[in-house]
Design a protein that fits this description.
- The chain is α+β, with helices and mostly antiparallel strands and 102 residues long.
- Helix content is 44%, strand content 23%.
- It has three helices and four strands, in the order E-H-E-E-H-E-H.
- It has helices at 19-31, 49-63, 85-101, and strands at 2-9, 36-38, 43-46, 70-77.
- Helix 1 (19-31) packs antiparallel against helix 2.
- The longest helix is centred in the last third of the chain and has 17 residues, at 85-101.
- It is globular, with a radius of gyration of 16 Å.
Length: 102
């Protein structure tokens, strides 16, 4: 499965910045050893159901130390029997874009 998630604490910072909390969450994801990718809005993570959800839970709990509430947005692509889809989906998309241009 692939999970795209975003986790952030409530904050009282004047500028609304949550980068320290997000950095701690992303470190947990990267240290998990599971295939992952982080963009400006989401972190994507690939693996088996239990291992992916464990990482999401640990990242969420870590962010909780930075505020009284945590917002978690999660989207999952559950496709049993497939691996390497974090990159595979992008590769197929790029090929389709190239074919559409021709």
């Amino acid at each position: 499965m692939i999970v795209a998630f975003s986790v952030a604490p409530s904050t009282d910072n004047a500028d609304g910045s949550v980068h320290d909390a997000v950095a701690e969450a992303v470190k947990i994801v990267r240290d998990s050893g599971l295939p992952n990718r982080t963009s400006s809005m989401f972190t994507e993570l690939e693996g088996e159901w239990d291992e992916v959800m464990d990482v999401v839970k640990r990242a969420t709990l870590a962010v909780g130390k930075y505020g009284s509430r945590v917002s978690l947005v999660l989207k999952a692509d559950i496709r049993p029997g497939y691996e390497g889809e974090l990159d595979g989906k992008i590769e197929r998309l790029e090929k389709a874009i190239e074919a559409a241009v021709e």
